[in-house]
Amino acid sequence: MKKFFLLLLLVINISCTDDDPGDVLYSSEVVKVTGARYSASNVDFNNTYSAFMAAVNEEDSLEIFLEINHAANAIALGRVLNPSRLLFFGSPGMMIPLLQENQLAGLDLPQRMLFYQNVNSEVFAVYNTVPYLSSRYGLEQAEPLQHTAVLLKNLANAATRAEVRTAADLLVEQGQGIISKKSTQAFDATYSAVRRKLGAYENVTILTEINFQDYSPVQESENILRPTKLVIFGMPQLGTPLMQDSPTLALDVPQKILVWEDEEGITNISYNDPAFLADRHNLPATAPEIEQIAAVLDEVSSVNTTN
């Protein structure tokens, strides 16, 4: 397997997947994240995470795109955060068909799995479910979705040695929590402008960039993936205090901006609405940090746009 970057810092037939909404529906006072599944580990944090990484490395089809140690980033800011690590990983063979169906899915690809320890020293693995992805992006690719559901559950099982449970409702409305703006410029110029704008912020760090076309095999023109790039960037001075209040937020930070060209050749800039993420993780949308993150995303995404 390849490690590209390492950093410390529906409507579908859901019955065909391992993420059936009726499967171990669990009302938990500990983990309530719409569209997520979780597993409470039977071993300590370090052994849980080590077992997960070993399981990921055993899968030849998986590539690691980014690893983040949220707790280490908090220490660098002079703050204290319980152990919290996030891994971006995925199989290009499973990602590309989903992106060909809806490029916006790049906001939740590659897959992510969060490991964190709460104030009671309980360790959890949390990840986005296939029904969440398929409902949010209108995905219907049964084979890659089913394979992804099984893979994620197996990885969580291997790490925690415990059953995987459903944290809350699995489904959202298509396009829910996504903000998109149309650029007046071509794709390359728009992406460069977004990157320059991010680089102008003193407290913003670009963590990695993913050009999804790099993983798309040569195909017939009607199935080719149009230009689609994701930039992942951190604002730990804003994210850390929010994660102190809601540790599951670490599943959805750092921030992401997706630049993509649609079928009409128009370039779009899309990102997750911070208010949606706040609600997903039981935080007030009016929290000062949420509003500041929203302001940065709005400003960066407004380069070269008509919105």
Automatic annotation (TrEMBL):
Matches recorded under InterPro entries: DUF302 (IPR005180), TT1751-like_sf (IPR035923)
Domain DUF302 span(s) in chain numbering: 68-128, 225-274
Protein name in the entry: DUF302 domain-containing protein
Upper lineage: Bacteria, Pseudomonadati, Bacteroidota, Flavobacteriia, Flavobacteriales
